[in-house]
Every structure is written in structure tokens, then in C-alpha cells.
């Protein structure tokens, strides 16, 4: 995964200091005892990726997280094929099994958000941790690490056994709206299903010696929250109208009030009539 230079030394320090902040993209719940006898991944910790900086037309992500909640259907299929999911530490060594019902959380180290024809784009890098898919019968292991969210291509990327990087799955593109971008809070919030890619299904099956993974299945539901750089103007950076969010919220409030029977709609109608009758009135 390539990366771009940091915007400033101060920002890089801030990102490093707060890299353990919140949000959520990944996964996998099994609730089984740790699998014994799994070998450590590689010779040692991989080099930390350089922070992603915000090029022109983008805004930096300074902290956040993504959580991956594996679907019950996917978990059931893994169990039927004697596969277990185990957390990896920064050195690629296996740790505790992922508890049932608990999403895998990856904290953001750096990233950028862009406006791609009115949809969320950009790139987000995560802490150097991951998970292993372990075949408890054959001891074959697929280690997934160096996770990245490619928001432009709507893909979740990871390395497999410290070799090539592949798109583990893809999610629907998401429009820039008040649901996905809160200008006042300076946050991007995304929730989407991730469908397993054909290449990832083939690679994981081959690496684990099973046929447990199926192309197109919803592997997980991901929830992300990315906190944006406080030194940048969100609207200007993303090329948004100066009233973005404010206008949408105002329109939403009006629509909700008009749809509700009774007093709220009456008050809204009265307010509109007063404005028409007294266009120059203050307030």
C-alpha cells in the first residue's frame, strides 16, 4: 500500500499520538478458545506506513476507527469448515480468538477523504494489526494484515501472509450527504455491507485448504467514523456549497414537520405565512 507524505511534522505527531482513537471496519466473531500451536507470522514487525497526506481537493483524516462485524451466516460457514478467527498483534503473532458477537476494530493511523463526483472517496490506513483464519485440522493459516480502506474504489484491502495485497471485499459507494458527512462535527460516518471479492474467496480457500469462502457473500458489515483535520475548511476542501449540511438539515426539518399531523405542521405553515406577510421583519 503506497502512501503520501505528511502535511506537517506537527500533524504527523498528532496522528501518531492519537492513533488509538475510535471507529469501526472489520470483523469477525467466533467465540472459541484460542487455537493452540499456530506459528508466528513473519520475522518481525513490518515498517509502519507513512501517514497519508491530503492532496489538493481533499481533507486529512486525523483519527478514527473501523469495525468489522462478521455476519452470522459467514461465521456459521467457517465453523462448519473447522476454521477459526484469531487476532494478530503488530508482529503478526497470533493472540486471542475473536469473541462471538464482538467486531474487530482497527484504529486509523492516517488518511484522506475526497469528493468523487458527489460521493465519498479517499484512502484510510489502519494500525498494523489484523486477524488470522486458521484451519484447526490442517493448521493452514491465512494471515490478513495491513488493512486499508480504499474509499474511492469502495474496497477493503489487506495483505495475505505478508505477500501480495488484495481486495478482500467491496462495499456500495456512498453519496456525500448529511448521513455520511457532518460538517459541524468534522466527521465522516459510513456503514455498509462488505461482499467478498472473487479473488479473495479463491485465495482464502487455497490458503486455508477449504471451500468455505464464496464470492459475493456478505462477509461483514462495517462501521467507520473518521475525524477530519481541524485546520482545514471541510466545505472548501471537498468543493461543497457553503450551505452544505445547513441547507439539508433545514429542508429535512421542514419535511418532517409537514409529514407529522397536528401542531408541528401547523406551526411550520404559520411561520411560512408570517414570513410572506412581513418579508422585512427581523428574525
Short description:
With 283 residues, the chain is of the alpha+beta class. It is built from 6 helices and 13 strands.
Protein described:
- This protein is of the alpha+beta class.
- Helices cover 22% and strands 34% of the residues.
- It is built from 6 helices and 13 strands.
- It has helices at residues 9-17, 72-80, 198-208, 234-238, 246-259, 263-277; strands at 24-25, 58-70, 83-88, 94-97, 104-116, 119-126, 130-135, 141-150, 155-160, 165-170, 181-182, 187-196, 218-228.
- The protein has an 8-stranded antiparallel barrel.
- Strand 5 and strand 6 (119-126) form a beta hairpin.
- It is elongated.
- The termini are far apart.
- The model is unreliable at 1-48 and 248-283 (pLDDT under 50).
Instruction: Compute the average pLDDT.
Output: 75
Q: Quick one: biggest sheet?
A: 8 strands, antiparallel, barrel
- SS-derived structural category: alpha+beta
> How would you describe the shape?
elongated
Number of H- or I-type helical stretches: 6
Indicate the radius of gyration in whole angstroms: 22 Å
Strand content: 25-35%
Q: What's the end-to-end separation, in Å?
A: 53 Å
* Unreliable residue stretches: 1-48, 248-283
Amino acid at each position: 500500500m503506497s502512501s503520501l507524505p505528511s502535511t506537517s511534522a506537527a500533524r504527523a505527531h498528532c496522528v501518531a499520538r492519537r492513533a488509538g482513537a475510535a471507529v469501526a471496519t472489520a470483523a469477525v466473531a467466533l467465540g472459541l478458545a484460542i487455537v493452540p500451536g499456530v506459528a508466528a507470522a513473519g520475522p518481525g514487525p513490518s515498517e509502519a506506513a507513512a501517514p497519508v497526506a491530503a492532496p489538493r481537493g481533499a481533507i486529512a483524516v486525523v483519527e478514527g476507527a473501523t469495525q468489522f462485524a462478521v455476519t452470522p451466516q459467514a461465521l456459521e460457514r467457517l465453523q462448519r469448515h473447522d476454521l477459526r478467527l484469531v487476532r494478530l498483534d503488530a508482529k503478526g503473532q497470533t493472540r486471542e480468538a475473536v469473541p462471538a458477537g464482538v467486531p474487530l476494530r482497527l484504529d486509523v493511523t492516517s488518511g484522506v477523504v475526497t469528493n468523487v463526483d458527489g460521493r465519498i472517496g479517499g484512502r484510510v490506513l489502519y494500525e498494523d494489526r489484523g486477524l488470522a483464519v486458521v484451519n484447526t485440522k490442517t493448521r493452514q493459516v491465512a494471515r490478513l494484515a495491513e488493512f486499508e480502506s480504499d474509499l474511492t474504489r469502495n474496497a477493503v484491502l489487506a495483505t495475505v501472509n505478508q505477500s501480495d495485497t488484495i481486495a478482500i471485499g467491496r462495499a456500495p459507494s456512498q453519496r456525500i450527504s448529511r448521513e455520511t458527512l457532518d460538517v459541524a462535527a468534522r466527521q465522516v460516518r459510513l456503514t455498509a455491507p462488505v461482499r467478498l471479492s472473487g479473488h479473495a474467496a479463491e485465495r482464502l480457500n487455497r490458503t486455508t485448504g477449504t471451500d468455505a469462502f464464496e464470492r459475493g457473500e456478505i462477509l461483514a458489515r462495517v462501521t467507520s467514523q473518521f475525524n477530519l483535520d481541524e485546520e482545514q475548511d471541510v466545505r472548501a476542501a471537498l468543493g461543497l456549497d457553503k450551505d452544505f449540511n445547513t441547507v439539508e438539515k433545514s429542508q429535512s426539518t421542514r419535511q418532517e414537520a409537514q409529514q407529522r399531523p397536528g401542531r408541528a405542521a401547523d406551526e411550520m405553515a404559520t411561520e411560512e405565512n408570517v414570513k410572506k406577510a412581513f418579508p422585512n421583519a427581523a428574525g
